[in-house]
Amino acid sequence: MTHTISINGERYIHPDGTTHLVSIGSPGTAEPSWVAQARARGVQVVRLEFDNVESSIHGQAPTQADFTQVTDLARHALSERRAHVHLHCSEGISRSTAAALGVLAVFHPGEEEEQIAARLLTLRPQAQPNRRMLRHLYREFDLNMLGEFPRPR
């Protein structure tokens, strides 16, 4: 069984072989045209819309339901013999990398925070996961990742 993931910004077309796609955009923005093309080719797509914020005071924050859609998709991918989950947001730095931590937690159950953080940083060295999503990760998996990714200065 092979299960892989990739992460990038929305300007980049998803890699060949993608079976599952998490597309994250800001509220009211159109999804990239390549997302619709992927869906038409049979790629399972979850489209989420929320701002890259920690609190609803500053915009539409990600909810636990948003995070659960990502982990449900990851569980579906894990049930398949081969799967490639691709995640994107506008820059591939914050929202998609936080979502990727959920996918990694599903793909590697029982791993400690440090191991999952290292996997993410191998995939996306510039990762600065959205802190609100990290709180959802804690609620779902009891993984406290806030210390693994200090606030950028």
From TrEMBL:
Protein's UniProt name: Tyrosine specific protein phosphatases domain-containing protein
Species of origin: Deinococcus soli
Taxonomy, superkingdom: Bacteria
InterPro entries named among the record's database cross-references: Prot-tyrosine_phosphatase-like
